[in-house]
Amino acid sequence: MAGRGISGQGLQGAPGARPDRSLPHAVYHWAEMRAKMRVLGFNAEAVKPLNEEAAAELGAELLGEATIFVVACSCLVLEYRRQQTQQRRQERERRAALEAMRDEVDHLALALEALQARVQAAPPQGALEELRAQVQEVRAQLRARDPPPAPPAAPSPAE
Fold it and tell me: What is the pTM of this model?
């Protein structure tokens, strides 16, 4: 076990590798993997180590799948943010439209109040007719009291 890394290959050629420091890590890894395999019901002797070519192929496949996963997650996050931004913009537009409608309703309410005040201040139609009738009656009384003036005498033709 001494001088072997996690992958089981020697560390002699790796720059900066220290076999004496990797031993506790390798032992921990070995113990952890054995325990996991027992819990899952796998036989540790049945698993054969991969050759370097198969390991490289599986690593490349894993890297490709991880890249696709990261891109897909990024697309999901970007789409979610775009949707949220659009939803906020629509909500602001709805609020602005609602506020404009409220302003218009308030303006129309003020205009209605002004019109109602004008209608109440104006005399009713029946009162106008009554006043016209009274004016005609007064005119008739004045005409009856004062006869109309006689037309001026026409000059006689003999003169």
Answer: 0.42
* Mean predicted confidence (pLDDT) in 64-81: 97
Beta carbons of 12 and 5 less than 8 angstroms apart: no
Q: Write the CB contacts of 5 (distance below 8 Å, at least 6 apart in sequence).
A: 11, 14, 17, 22, 26
User: Are 26 and 6 a contacting pair, CB within 8 Å?
Assistant: yes
Q: Which of 87, 86, 84 is nearest to 76 (CA)?
A: 84
Sign of CA dihedral 34, 38, 41, 46: positive
Average pLDDT, the chain: 82
* Cα 129 from Cα 122, distance rounded (Å): 13
Residue with tokens 């009738």: 133
Q: How far apart are CA 68 and CA 90, in angstroms?
A: 33
